[in-house]
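>> received
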Amino acid sequence: MIIVKDPVCGMMVPVNGELIVLHQGQPFRFCSELCKTAFLKAPEKYLAGRAAGAHHNHETRRIAYFSMED
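>> returned
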């Protein structure tokens, strides 16, 4: 299976996924509707980072960890 990076969050997604947007003749694939919507609102924001070698904006990305331990 061939995978590519979601330009918004950096998550790896399969090429044959359903969430695809053609922008300036180039296909972009997304892991979720949320990422797809964010890209459609401001594609230049994510394409600029891609050209500079950045994969996503760490300032706006949040990760939560949960533990079942007491």
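>> Residues 24 and 34 are 21 Å apart (CA to CA).
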